[in-house]
Specification:
Blueprint (H helix, E strand, L loop, with lengths): L1 E5 L6 H14 L5 E6 L6 H5 L3 E4 L5 H8 L4 E4 L9 H21 L4 E7 L27 H19 L2 E7 L1 E3 L5 H4 L1 H4 L7 E2 L1 E3 H13 L7 E4 L5 E2 H7 L24 H7 L8 H6 L4
Parallel strand pairs: 1-2, 1-4, 2-3, 4-5, 5-6, 6-10, 7-9
Antiparallel strand pairs: 8-11
Length: 290
C-alpha cells in the first residue's frame, strides 16, 4: 500500500511516522510512505528511515494534487490547535481536510483516514461518549478546533458516500508523552477546573498503535473509533503530575458536567484488538515515558 501522511512534523505525526515506517519495513508487504512537508529539511529524518517526501503546502491545491498522485491511502494527521486564531483553525482543520479529501477522490485514492478529536462530542451524556453519538456544540474553552474537526468529519462523510471512498475516522483523546509539552499545556485549562473534573488522555505510543490498526485493518472500513486510554485523569492528578500546587479553593469548585470529554474506547478494543500500552498516565510515568 502506498500511503500519504500529512502533518508529519507535528506533535502526533513526528512520533507516528517513524512507527509507520518501521511497520512498512518489517511487514513484507512492500508498503511505501510519503510525507507532505512545508520544508524539505524537515523531512530528512523521515527520508533517512525510508520515506518519500513531497514539499508543499496543505492549503495549496497544486501541492496537494502532487502529494496524492499514485497513493492508495491518505492519513490526514495535520491539525492546527494550540494558540492559533480561529480563522487558521477553520482553514486547516476543516477547509484543508475537505480539499484533501476531494483531491484524494479525484486521484482515485481508495482509503482515507481522518484524525479527529474526542472534543467533537461536546457536552457529556451522563456516560462515556461512543462513536455513534452525534457531535454537539463543543465547550468554548477549546476554541474553533473541535467545531472545525466536526465539520470536517461531516463533509468527508458526505464525500465518501457520494464517491465510495473508504473513510475511517480516528477521534483522539488528549495526547501526551515522549516529551510532548501537551501535558504541561493541560494546566491552561485544568487550573480553573473542579477537583474531580477529568481529562481523557492517550499516550503517543497508543495513538500510534491505534492509528496503525485503523489504517490497516479490513474491519475498520467506513468506521469511526475513539482512541483513548482506560483511566481519565483528574484535575488533582494533573496538578500533581505537573508539580503545580493545588489551589486552596479547588475542593469548592462546582462540576457541572462530570462526563465532559470522557469517551469509550471499547469499539477499538473489541473490533481491532487495541490494548493500551499505557492504560493510564501513571503507568506512563512509572515507565519514564512522559
Amino acid at each position: 500500500m502506498r500511503i500519504l501522511v500529512t502533518g508529519a512534523t507535528g506533535q502526533v505525526g513526528s512520533r507516528f511516522v517513524p512507527r509507520l515506517l518501521q511497520r512498512a519495513a518489517t511487514s513484507g508487504g512492500g508498503d511505501t510512505v510519503r510525507v507532505l512537508v512545508r520544508e524539505e529539511a524537515r523531512a530528512e529524518p523521515f527520508v533517512r528511515l525510508g520515506a518519500q517526501a513531497v514539499t508543499g503546502e496543505l492549503r495549496d491545491a497544486a501541492d496537494v494534487a502532487k502529494a496524492v498522485e499514485g497513493v492508495d491511502a491518505v492519513l490526514n494527521i495535520a491539525a492546527s490547535f494550540r494558540g492559533v486564531p480561529d480563522e487558521e483553525s477553520w482553514a486547516v482543520n476543516r477547509d484543508a481536510a475537505l480539499a484533501l479529501g476531494q483531491a484524494a477522490v479525484d486521484a482515485g485514492v481508495s482509503r482515507f483516514v481522518q484524525v479527529s478529536t474526542n472534543r467533537v462530542y461536546g457536552a457529556g451524556r451522563s456516560r462515556p461518549c461512543v462513536e455513534d453519538d452525534e457531535p454537539a456544540a463543543p465547550a468554548e474553552a477549546w476554541g474553533a478546533y473541535p467545531a472545525a474537526k466536526a465539520e470536517a468529519e461531516a463533509g468527508l462523510t458526505a464525500l465518501a458516500r457520494a464517491h465510495g471512498l473508504d473513510l475511517r475516522i480516528a477521534r483522539l483523546a488528549f495526547v501526551y508523552g515522549e516529551g510532548d509539552p501537551h501535558l504541561a499545556a493541560a494546566m491552561r485549562w485544568a487550573s480553573g477546573w473542579a477537583a474531580h473534573q477529568r481529562l481523557h488522555m492517550v499516550h503517543h505510543a497508543d495513538v500510534a498503535q491505534g492509528l496503525l490498526r485503523v489504517l490497516y485493518s479490513a474491519d475498520a472500513a467506513g468506521r469511526t473509533y475513539n482512541i483513548a486510554d482506560d483511566a481519565p485523569v483528574t484535575t488533582v492528578e494533573l496538578h500533581q503530575l505537573n508539580g503545580v500546587p493545588l489551589p486552596p479553593d479547588l475542593a469548592d469548585r462546582p462540576l457541572p458536567d462530570p462526563w465532559d470529554g470522557i469517551v469509550s474506547p471499547l469499539r477499538l478494543h473489541d473490533e481491532l484488538g487495541f490494548r493500551p500500552l499505557y492504560p493510564s498516565v501513571w503507568t506512563a510515568r512509572a515507565a519514564g515515558a512522559l
